[in-house]
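Regression test attached.
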Amino acid sequence: MHRPISQTSIARLRVASPSGTLPARIIRPTILSDLRPLIVLHGISRNADELVALFTPEAERSGRIVVVPHFAQRRWPHFQRPCRAARPDQALLALLGHLAVMNPAFAGPVDLFGHSGGAQLAHRFAMLYPHKVGRLNLAAAGWYCLPDASMTYPYGLGGDATPGALCWARRHEQALPAYLRLGVQVFVGTHDTDRDDSLRQCPDLDRIQGHTRIARAGTYVERFRAAARARGILPEITLIRLPGVTHNVAQAIRQAHLGRLVTAGEPPRLAAAS
Amino acid sequence: MTQDVLAPLTTAKWTFATRRVDHGLIGGMDTAFAAARPGDLILAQVESLGQHQRVQLSSGRPSYIYPGDMIVLACGARYAPDQFEGLAEIDPDGADLLAGGGCIGRMVARNERIKNATRLLPVGRLLDDAGEPVNLDRFALPPTDRTNDIPVVFVLGTAMNSGKTLATAQLALGLRRAGYKVAALKGTGTGAFGDFNEYSDTGAHWVADFTDAGMVTTYREPLARVKDGLNLLLGHAAERGCDIAVMEIADGLFQRETGALVADPWLRDRLSGLVFACGDAVAAAGGVAELARHGLRPDALTGILSCSPMAAAEAMSATGVPVLRKGDLADPAEANVFALRAFAGTRRAA
């Protein structure tokens, strides 16, 4: 039987930014659909290679261009959130800007997917630059920046005495209405219950966001909805529980079809609340 | 033997202010200098060097000048408290190089810390084939039908050299990094390539100044003409696909045209963001108070002030307005605050 050979190409790219160089792989399927490009952000295991392998079939199936950056440990010891120590947001912007020169699809909003630490970066990037984001897909973030003042920055947008925190809270605050208008899918495995060393734990975080990633995802979705409604915005955020999945992105993709859920076309948008 | 009166033009140095001029339209010269009006092209010979030892060429590089050099400039006034005040008048016996960007006129005041103006001998006023004076306004950007509806962040300041140009360039850089197509515009002042080039170096999508609207300087131009020029630049920025504009307004709030603009409803209508550059906390407080008198409140203070953490803290305490350093303005996360505020139309009243 004749089997067509996949022509999906995987190109390597390195982009310099004011805060450092970021390598990335660009997965370009044989047949392109009109779906937005998807940026896939790894977590603290920095398993970009594995994500390239896992998302290549999804790129082929959906016709999306998928971009997988790699925040290497040596150059990017911190990459989960923009802060004084690291500016992964600037690197992502530089990557998008570079890609936009070659492909106008990257000039407009792109979809974001992040797992664990990558989900942290994804939602914080979207909070700062909502105009660059189409749909936001967050899987199993350890904790969130809540879109309200219930916690001080970086756990929320409440101010504290430090100038840095005030500065970042102010920057996020301005973008909040546009952020709350984004379509968001939040994923978490039903077995993602470990409180291991990779999960940030402190009394306020546990008390307000919850003890596990499952609880924290639920809190985030609730707060997102409340913040949106408080501004007259109809929230478009969904919490999707992945049956039997632990804190393991490969398992989530292979067993619960997370990749397909992320790369599928989005449902029609509902009208905004008046 | 016939004499080619245009022969000196072949070796003349064409200055930045004349960069839009089609040299092929020059058909002759006269010496009716008394009739020269702002923007008329003047061929002049360097007589003696003073403050300006170089001119800015239309090609974008500076050129040393030497006595005897031929230069093409535009008749114009100048307002530069750190240098000269001058009028758009050409004395046939000798004129002043008021600005290295290519402005010739009569100096009427000079900052004590600088030398006298470089002296120029007017050679002729350039004419077209029909004998009409060739004026910069003929080479302005064409009118555009496009509504000049893109948001504008204005950059104002206390005075010349307070940090406005750097602020404009750095904010344009930050907005470009945040993914926007930015127009970096010099709205008023006297034509010079320093600001223009500094804007261009940021990778702004489109860069222009009032010389693109046909003026060598906006000093002593009627406010209506200045505003027409600003609208023309913004219209072209929109037509070129820019998402947002950053526009520098020259000199301080009390300068004639800047003061008139600040007081004019046009500025309030077009303003989507406001940055104020100043040198110290007292200047910040004075500037914020003066702007408040016109119903304006800056979104940020910057400039020389921002280099000093102590001065910045004093200014923030006195005005309640955040102080941003150049690195902050160039930071896409900070610049995006201006863009998002502009697109949302959520400016605070004073």
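Expected vs. actual: identical. DSSP finds eight helices and eight strands in chain A.
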